[in-house]
Amino acid sequence: MHIKNIVVIGSSGHGRVVADILSQMSGYRVAGFIDSFAEKGTIRFGHLSVLGGEQDLPALMAEHQITGGIVGIGDNWVRSQVAAKVQAVVPSFEFVNAIHPSAVISDTAHIGHGNVIAANAVINTNATLGHHCIINTAACIEHDNRMDDYSSVAPRVVTGGNVTIGAYTAISIGAVVKHGISIGEQSIIGAGAVVLKPVEAYSIWYGVPARKMGERKAGDKYL
Ligand SMILES: CC(C)(COP(=O)(O)OP(=O)(O)OC[C@H]1O[C@@H](n2cnc3c(N)ncnc32)[C@H](O)[C@@H]1OP(=O)(O)O)[C@@H](O)C(=O)NCCC(=O)NCCS
To answer: Are 106 and 186 contained in the same domain?
Structure first.
């Protein structure tokens, strides 16, 4: 099998989870981390260190025969900004999916690129993931769901069938979303929420049952 050399962009907690997933996949060899906020040479996972920042990518890719990688940053908005920066510095950069070997993914699911699918996640039939989404540990994305680009579901989130999750929207740890519900873009569903009604874009909902608790703008912090 041809092994591709790749990098993980972002070296904090989520970045290390992504490196861990990639280390368990066949087909990739992680050369190291790209992180503008960490000192070059800092060891972050096993023997893997920070190789440099995004601006160093052209030289690093030539030096290590790197073809692409994945952005390992948990915040949806920051992940999109960093992915755009990488694309601007290296237009040919190939974003790969990090899929843990224990994840169960239907052959009829549609998966874009740059996605993280963590240990024990389930993605059921005809679900569609855009690009750069996170399906975190033991989350369950049911049949016919749609997750738009840069959306995320935290550990143990469960959605019913035919749920849609808009771009940049984050569903927090342990939340449950009833079948058929649409959640607009740039919204946050709080930890442990039970979502029974449609959620409009740019809003914050939590509680059991979940209610609208506030509004937000693109890029507002939530982690
Ligand atoms: C929804 C969320 C973003 C709201 O954050 P926030 O606006 O900063 O809210 P605050 O912490 O100021 O809390 C405001 C009030 O709402 C309550 N509250 C906050 N989140 C809640 C939740 N998920 N469910 C029920 N009540 C909640 C707080 O207890 C507090 O109540 P109080 O005023 O009686 O003390 C946040 O609480 C949350 O759930 N984050 C998810 C984090 C997560 O999943 N991390 C894992 C990622 S892998």
So the answer is: yes
